[in-house]
Amino acid sequence: MLQTFSRQWARAELACAAILAATVTALILLNVLTRNLGLALFWVDELAIYAMIWMTLLAASAAVHHKDAVAVTIVTDAMPQAIAQMLSRLVDAVIFALALLTAWFCWRWFLPLEFARAGFDVETFQGATFNFIYSEATSTLGVRKVWVWSIMTTVAVFILCMFCAVPVAFVLILTAITYVQASGNAVLFDSFAQQLFSGLENYGLLAIPLFMMTGELMNEGGMTQRLVQAARVFVGGFRGGLAYINLLANMFMAAIIGSAASQIAVMSRAMVPAMKQEGYRPGFAAATTAAGGLLAPVVPPSMMFVIYGVLAQLPIGDMFIAGILPGLLLFGAFVIVVTVIGIAPGFPHGQWMTRLDAARALLGCLPASLIPITIIGGILFGVATPTESAAVASLVAFAMAWFSGQRLTLPRLFSLFRRTAVNSGMVVFMIAAANVFGWVVVYEALPQKLAASITAITSDPFLFLLIVNAMLLFVGMLIDGIAAVILVTPILLPIATGSYDIDPFQFGVVLCLNLVLGLLTPPVGVGLFITSSMTGIRVAEILSALWPFLLAVAIVLVALSYWPLLSTALL
Fold this sequence. Notes:
The protein has 571 residues and is mostly helical. It has helices at 2-36, 43-65, 81-110, 112-117, 122-134, 147-162, 168-183, 192-200, 207-220, 224-235, 241-254, 260-277, 282-292, 303-312, 316-322, 324-343, 355-380, 386-403, 410-443, 446-455, 461-478, 481-498, 504-516, 526-535, 539-562, 565-568.
C-alpha cells in the first residue's frame, strides 16, 4: 500500500511540475508581450520565478523517486546487485533525512512566531533576524575552529557520498552541513535555508527550462532531417560528403538544442544508419556523430553557458557571444580531422543536389533557422533578455512542431512539459545546492588558500590554464559536465580572475568545453554509451575511431587558453 501511495504521489508531483513548466513559459511570454506594448507588469517575472522554484522542488523529488537524479554510479555499477540495492536504500534514507533537516533549517530561518511578534511587518522582521545573519560581528568569528579536522571530515563525506551514488545536489548540501557541524559554527545553520533559497530565486535560471523546452519541441517537430538536408546543400557533393553533412548538421543542431547528450542521441539515430548504408565504417560514423555533439556546449545557445553565467554572475547574452568564435574553431578542427582521415581509406563520393532540390531543402530548413535567429538576434539587438529570447524561441518551436505535420496531441505535449520539468528541475536544484556549497567554500576562503598554492608553482596565466585543463579533464571523466561546472566554478573562478587576471568569459569557454569532454571519455563516458545504445555499435569500436577528434579538441583548448581574443574578440 505504501509503494502504491508513493507511486501515485510521484505521479502527482510530475503532473504539477509539468503544469508549472507550461506556466513559466506562458508568464515569460506574457512579460515580453506586455513590455513591448508599454504595459509592463512587474509582478510577472516574480511569479515566474516562484513557479520555477515550485517546479524545481517537485521535479527534483520525482526525479529522486524514479532514480533519474544526476549521480556518479561508476562504483555502484561494479558492485554485486544485492550490495548495490542495499546501498540504494541507504542513499534513500540519507536523502529523506536531509529533507527533514532542511525543513528544520527552513523553520529556524523563517521563525513564524517571531514574524507574528513583529506584527507581520516584513521590514521589522528582517531587521530582527536577517541583519544578524549577515553581520560580521556574529559569534561565529569567536568560535575556535579545528581547521584540519573540519576539512578532512568534509572531504571524506564528499568523496564517500559522491561515489556511493548519492545525487550530486544532495552531496553538495550534505558536504556543506558536515563542514558547518565539524567546524563548530552551528550558528551558520540559521542562514542555511536562506542560501539554498537564494540559489533558486534567480531570474537567469528561467532560461534553463525554456531552452530545454525549445529542444524538446524541435525534436517533436521532426526538424532533424530538414537540418540534415540543408547541410547536404552546402557540403554534400564533396568526397566523404556525408561525414561533412554530419558535422554541419550537428553545428545547426547545436544552435538550437544546446545540450550535448540530447544532441548525440538525436543525431545518432539520424546520421549513423545513413553513413553505414553509404559504406562508411560503423565506428567512424558513430565517432563523427558523437564528436559533433561536443559543439553543443560551445555554440550558442549553450545550456552550460547559461549555468556558468548564473554562477559567475555574468551576462548570459555576452556568454553566448563569447562562444561563437570557439564554436567555429572547433567545427573547423573537426572538418580537418575528417579530411585527413578520408585521405587514406578514400571516402565515398558525394553528390550535389539539383538546384530545385537544394531550394526545397533550404526552404524546408528556414523555419528551424528562426530559432537561433530569435535567440541571438533578440539578445544582440536588445529586443529581449536571454530568458525572454528562450521563451520566444520555444513559442516558435511550438508553432513549427504544430504545423510540421506531426501530431502534437495533448498527451504528447503534456509528456514534453513533464520531461522539461524533470530535466531542468534537477539542474536548477543542483545550482541551488551549489550556492550553499559555494557559501561554505567562500567562508573557509578555500579559493584564496588554493590560489596561494598554485601561484607558488606558476604566475603565468597560460600555465595555470594548462594545469586547470589537466585537472578538469580528470574531473570530467568521472562527473557529469553540468554537475562538474556547478562544483568547480565557485572554487576556480575566483583564482582565475583574482590571481591571474584571466577574463571570466575566456575561462568559462575553456571550462565548459573541457568538462563536456567527459561525455566521450572513459570510465563514465555517457555520450559513448548513448551513441552505442542508439546505433548498436560497440563502445570500444567507437572509441578507437574517436581519438583524432579528442586530440583536435585538446588542441583547440590549448589555443583558447593561450589566446584570450578567441573568446573575447566579439564582446
